[in-house]
Design a protein that fits this description.
Pfam families: HTH_1, LysR_substrate
Number of helices: 11
CATH architecture of the largest domain: 3-Layer(aba) Sandwich
Keywords: DNA-binding, Transcription, Transcription regulation
CATH topology of the largest domain: D-Maltodextrin-Binding Protein, domain 2
GO molecular function, one term: DNA binding
Low-confidence stretches: none
Largest sheet: 7 strands, mixed
Number of strands: 13
Protein name: LysR family transcriptional regulator
Helix content: 40-55%
Shape: globular
Family: Belongs to the LysR transcriptional regulatory family.
Oligomer: single chain
Amino acid sequence: MDQLLAMRIFCAIVDAKSFTAAADVLGMSHSSVSRQLKQTESALCVQLLNRTTRRFALTSAGERYHRHCLDILSRVDAMTNAMSGEREHLQGALRVSVPLAIGTLELADWLPAFQSQYPDVSLTLSCSDQFVDLVAERFDVALRISSAPLADSSLMAKLLTSSDTVLVASPGYLAQRGLPSAPADLANHRLLAPLRAGQPNEWTLTDVADATQRVTLTGTFTSDAIPALFSATLAGLGIAAFTERTVRTELARGTLVRVLPQYRAGTHHYYALYPRTRHVNPRARAFIDFMATHYRQR
């Protein structure tokens, strides 16, 4: 058994939270991914996942194995990068398109480290939540956040991470309006809504038992820009939904507070997209690998 491949497949399953999504990212069939996991469990003589018809959860052994896999794969990737002179001495232009959340709210988390690691790469960053034509607009890489599987295209896609969407509000707002204890309580609150054409103006909240409840967004503020919703939430205008990764720093600082923490408002997947060519631009490959490592470590 190829142990490195087995570890990468296992990490892909955990990151994607789905056998099907992991298979898509790896370019494998669902049956191959499932068979590889069974072989890994058989070789280790432990059960790594508890499976149900709809979801799976890591066992305690699975959690330990996952931590070891991340550590080993990170070391292997670092060694590979260190052995590649081309990657150690990258230089030249790199054009990247990123969503507003990554290009603004998450920028300080990753850009300084990337520029420190690749000081001779000239990075041009375009921030937009609109899907761009990478080839026509001459982008090397696009990062995108999606709540649904990406549509078939001529682009290659690498799943970087997944993040639950959570409800948050400022302490000041909650002090004035009270902390909701159930989804029905949201009817008495200001709900800050994203403005997205063709999508329902509602949240679908899922609890730990996978039961769902729909909440219609009837707030007094909407915006098509995530940073605007973020600023409005910090300013105490109401309750909003963001990926946990987007608000992780604010939750740790206490400037935002989880609302209905037993519920999640869906899951969003972070992808790197790049043109389907035989030889990927080494600067693009370095950026994709850097972001994948960044999200694994956070």
